[in-house]
Design brief:
Layout: H1 2-13, H2 17-37, H3 42-62, H4 65-85, H5 87-98, H6 110-131, E1 136-140, H7 147-153, E2 155-160, H8 163-169, E3 180-184, E4 187-193, H9 209-220, E5 224-228, E6 235-239, E7 242-245, H10 249-260, E8 272-274, E9 280-282, E10 300-302, H11 307-311
Parallel strand pairs: 1-3, 7-10
Antiparallel strand pairs: 1-5, 2-4, 3-4, 5-6, 6-7, 8-9
């Protein structure tokens, strides 16, 4: 055993730097294969093959010639059996190798990719719910934490964000369809959450409880809220008390991604600034990074029509 290890180091590690790269690539391939079969039935098959290989090594070590020849003969037939048994895993591996051509995903950070997936899943769920006239209230947590609010009145879910799961939660007749769903990151944190209602509603007859709750939570926090009207089937987006109505799936996906994607750090606002006329004054709300206050007379915004719809 020691001689085999010494021979391995003499052959591969004392050659050139390409040997180190070669070993690294082999280790990466083995690790990738383990990731590929993790959580599948192929794990037990790999364990069984490993046990058979250990039996073969033991037969060779102790001189059991008949058992060793039997194992070698069975290995030839087993090679074709492995191809048949591992057919789903081999197909999935070849598909993943074929997707390597999309090199853009290697240059996209994990946070941006997660924001894209969240926006895609929520917009798809909103479109399906709106088409079937099922109301929905989805709250996306940003800087202000919503754990306390969700723990007081909601039911913990802690599930991966999927459009199908959101549709199931808001399906009419389920126990949680009347409350709100709180999204934290790319997870569904809680469902059936009761939100505070806004006391500053423009038209109480026009907006129901879901819209008032969406306005209320957006006034108290920086959360982004998606509302699907049960009566009209329209999709609305509420941010800081401002409502964007009649959004399509594509518009909602773009707006959500713009709001929840990782933002570059804001530039610090200097305490004193010098104007073009050479006068010094205090940094105000018009500086870079300052948020403008919401105009109460412009709380409702209708989404602009897509270019394709405008041509029609």
């Amino acid at each position: 055993m020691i001689d085999a290890i010494r021979e391995f180091f003499d052959t591969y590690l004392r050659g050139s730097w390409t040997s180190i790269i070669d070993i690294g690539l082999v280790a990466f391939v083995i690790y990738w294969l383990f990731i590929l079969i993790r959580g599948t039935r192929a794990v037990r098959i790999v364990i069984g093959l490993s046990v058979l290989y250990l039996v073969y090594l033991a037969a060779s070590l102790f001189g059991f010639e008949l058992l060793r020849r039997l194992m070698e003969t069975a290995a030839v037939v087993g090679l074709f059996a492995v191809v048949v048994v591992f057919q789903p895993e081999l197909r999935r591996a070849l598909e993943q190798i074929g997707r390597i051509g999309n090199v853009n995903r290697f240059f996209v950070s994990a946070e941006v990719a997660s924001a894209e997936r969240v926006a895609r899943e929520i917009s798809r769920a909103a479109r399906i719910l709106a088409g079937s006239r099922h109301g929905a209230l989805i709250v996306l947590e940003r800087q202000t934490g919503l754990q306390d609010l969700a723990a007081e009145s909601g039911v913990p879910v802690h599930a991966d964000l999927r459009a199908e799961l959101l549709i199931t939660i808001f399906y009419r007749g389920t126990a949680l369809h009347d409350g709100a769903v709180v999204i934290s990151g790319d997870k569904i944190a809680s469902a059936g959450v009761l939100l505070p209602l806004s006391q500053n509603v423009l038209d109480s007859e026009r907006y129901g409880t879901r819209h008032r709750a969406a306005i209320g939570i957006s006034e108290q926090t920086d959360a982004v809220v998606v509302v699907v009207s049960e009566e009209t089937g329209s999709i609305s987006l509420v941010v800081r008390g401002r409502i964007e109505r009649n959004l399509t799936e594509a518009q909602l996906r773009r707006r959500l991604f713009h709001l929840i994607r990782p933002q570059a750090p804001r530039r610090a606002i200097p305490f004193l600034r010098r104007s073009a006329e050479g006068q010094w004054h205090l940094g105000g709300a018009d500086d870079v990074g300052a948020e403008e206050p919401i105009d109460p007379d412009a709380r409702v915004v209708s989404a602009p029509a897509d270019q394709g719809a405008a041509r029609r």
